[in-house]
Amino acid sequence: MASLNVGNLGEYLREQRRTAQLTLRQLAEAAGVSNPYLSQIERGLRKPSAEILQQLAKALRISAETLYVQAGMLDQRDREEAEVRSVILADPSINERQKQVLLQIYESFRKENALATPGTAPEQSGPGGTSGGTGKTDDDQSNPSS
């Protein structure tokens, strides 16, 4: 079934390439892949490896996770995380250092919530959970009654 997503990946790659105003040849060169191979990926005839997707993402200046989702390499539950990461990485109003700091903070919150409430959504708090799980960690730390 993963091969059914290859067409979607190809369409998505073509759209991203055109948005970046790159020719097929320019993207192939920037990503270190051959022009015919990239053309086959865009037409849905080839399924690239995770490494090739990472090279394409770097050349397009988008997150590799976004391409992994498009290729069916990440499952549905990882889609939201990939989308958040993509939005942060694509934001032109913040610099690269700020983007990396935001991503680190986001990851730490996800890990903290996963530990506090295993098996539930991060927004829900489990009984007896000490971190609250509400997503308002500043309030939880400053208000001992919560």
What does this 3D model show about the protein?
This protein starts with 5 loop residues before the first helix and ends with a helix. α4 packs across α5 (64-70). With 146 residues, it is mainly alpha-helical. The protein has helices at 6-19, 24-31, 35-42, 50-60, 64-70, 76-90, 96-116, 137-142. The chain contains eight helices and no strands.
Record the SSE blueprint.
Elements: H1 6-19, H2 24-31, H3 35-42, H4 50-60, H5 64-70, H6 76-90, H7 96-116, H8 137-142
Helix pairs in contact: 2-3, 2-4, 4-5
What share of the residues lie within helices? Answer: 55-70%
Write the H/E string, N to C.
HHHHHHHH
Shape category: globular
Query: Tell me about the biggest sheet?
Result: none
* N- to C-terminal distance: 46 Å
* Count of individual helical segments: 8
Which regions are unreliable across 5 or more consecutive residues at pLDDT < 50? 1-5, 122-146
Oligomeric state, counting identical vs distinct chains: single chain
Output mean pLDDT: 79
Strand content: under 5%
How many runs of DSSP E, i.e. beta strands? 0
Rg from Cα: 19 Å
Structural class comes to mainly alpha
Short précis:
With 146 residues, the chain is mostly helical.
Notable characteristics:
single chain, mainly alpha, 0% strand
